[in-house]
Amino acid sequence: MMIKSLSVAPLTPPPPQSSTAPQKMAIPGSYGWPVIGPLSDRLQYFWFQGPVNFFKKRMEKYNSTVFRTNVPPAFPFFIGVNPNVVAVLDVKSFSHLFDMELVEKKNVLVGDFMPSVKFNGGLRVCAYLDTSETKHAQVKNLALDILARSSATWVSSMTTSLDTMWDSFDSTLSTGGSASYYLPLQQFLFTFLSRCLLGADTSASPEVEKSGTIMLDKWLALQLLPTISINILQPLEEIFLHSFSYPFWLVKSDYQKLANFVKNEAKEILQRAQNEFKLTEEEAIHNLLFILGFNAYGGFSLFLISLLSNLENQKNIHEELRKEVREKIAQDVLSFETVKQMELVNSFVYETLRLSPPVPQQFARARKDFELSSHDAIFDIKKGELLCGYQPLVMRDPKIFENPEDFVYDRFTKKKGGNELLNYLFWSNGPQSGTAGPSMANKQCAARDMVPMTAAVFLAYLFQRYDEIGISSGSITSLKKAK
Ligand code: HEM
């Protein structure tokens, strides 16, 4: 088991050894009758069971973390989309998704279905490129370069935008009542990410400043609707949201405005993209817009909501977090250096990423025939088969995480073996620790380190600024400023 694991997943050290050696086994499960099988699985996935139970129930039924199933979208208007996948639902089998010798990632960001390239200026942007494509290296290196260069001003840009957001919460709450945090969070993210990732000031374009978040939300929704479970208005969702893909023209004019914003306000980075990374101006604009809008804004919009809702559920540890933050911030300077020393804050962030990975599903296609190991068995995978990992279950693997269902806020601290556990934290499509990290040779999120650090700064800012924070059902309900 140890040797197999090492050979299949170079980014990830092998999980602890189990007592019995895994045996070769046929992959359980089936795809059912044509049309009927995929349709029935789609209805179970979106409606009757929901994604978590969909995977969980099949895992129990087959008594295996690896099995065959269909995943949406499917039937009737997704002609040419093959819903057949092999689900991989434990840490060991999921790790194969990171091994670029074994799998390819061409056009499989959200499965066999790929939103029209019209949503990205007619181009296949970085997230859809395989590591074997030269363009992938060019754009990935650009993304890594942007993050490295902006790291010096990241925290100060962020706190400027945080000041604006929390000042506004203070003033709303001072007149009584509460304030929903969804839209303010998105506004904060859009402003600060535009500045850090593009060097662009949103105030340069009044229309984009006012409506940029709504433009991005609509653009994201139209691309992803066929794959997202909402499950509030069934059967209307199945009929209107999950049966066909929405056309780009619905957001065409918004997209054009956002692309113009990048073209006009991100001039320096566009120059660098062309001179140093040999991209055309068009490639640079649409890739930067995707990185800003899809990767960063989309990812953080989901992640910060989970972070705040965990703060709401974990009121009893606010005091401990606040104490750590104030002890570690020397002379009121918030920086990456200071938050790195906040073990509890970081552990809280990692635990949120473990239980609520913002991008729940990852896909990869077998580059060749190979043997895939789960904790319990070994399976034959054929070239061309699509693997589908569902992170919310993988990150509850009981062989790796003790009390996997519980939010254990200090799980990732040193005293609890947190350093070792980071090898198995996969939200970024790769392990959180290890020297390999995101590079042009893999498909790990370019911001593997920046994302948790940003969340830690977000929390540290909050606990530095307030003595008490009240949060309830998506709203800030009370705030008591630090004395
Ligand atoms: C909370 C925020 C974020 C989350 C949850 C997130 C998550 C992810 C995930 C899961 C992937 C892999 C997708 C796949 O291939 O299956 C990815 C890829 C990527 N992310 Fe992030 N990301 C976030 C923020 C960012 C930011 C701030 C950047 C800015 C540079 C970024 C840049 C990228 C890029 C360029 C890729 C493509 C990597 C490649 O093709 O090799 N992400 N991200």
Give your account of this protein's structure.
The structure is a single chain. This protein is an alpha+beta fold and 483 residues long. It has a domain at 23-154 and 162-315 and 362-398: Cytochrome p450 (Orthogonal Bundle), CATH 1.10.630. It has 17 helices and eleven strands. A hairpin with a 3-residue loop joins strand 7 and strand 8 (377-381). Mean pLDDT is 92; it is low at 1-14. Bound molecules: protoporphyrin IX containing FE. Protoporphyrin IX containing FE binds next to helix 5, helix 11 and helix 17.
CATH superfamily of the domain at 23-154 and 162-315 and 362-398: Cytochrome P450
Strand content: 5-15%
Q: Helix content range of the residues, please?
A: 40-55%
Rg, alpha carbons: 22 Å
Characteristics:
single chain; alpha+beta; five-stranded mixed β-sheet; binds protoporphyrin IX containing FE; 483 residues; 17 helices; disordered N terminus; Cytochrome p450; 10% strand; globular
Give the structure's gist in a few sentences.
The protein has helices at 2-8, 36-48, 50-62, 91-94, 134-174, 182-198, 206-224, 236-240, 252-265, 267-275, 281-313, 318-328, 336-340, 343-355, 391-394, 418-421, 450-465; strands spanning 23-24, 66-70, 84-88, 103-104, 179-180, 361-366, 370-373, 377-381, 386-390, 466-472, 475-481. It is of the alpha+beta class and 483 residues long.
Write the layout of secondary structure elements.
Elements: H1 2-8, E1 23-24, H2 36-48, H3 50-62, E2 66-70, E3 84-88, H4 91-94, E4 103-104, H5 134-174, E5 179-180, H6 182-198, H7 206-224, H8 236-240, H9 252-265, H10 267-275, H11 281-313, H12 318-328, H13 336-340, H14 343-355, E6 361-366, E7 370-373, E8 377-381, E9 386-390, H15 391-394, H16 418-421, H17 450-465, E10 466-472, E11 475-481
Parallel strand pairs: 1-8, 3-9
Antiparallel strand pairs: 2-3, 4-6, 5-11, 6-9, 7-8, 10-11
Bound molecules: protoporphyrin IX containing FE.
Protoporphyrin IX containing FE binds next to helix 5, helix 11 and helix 17.
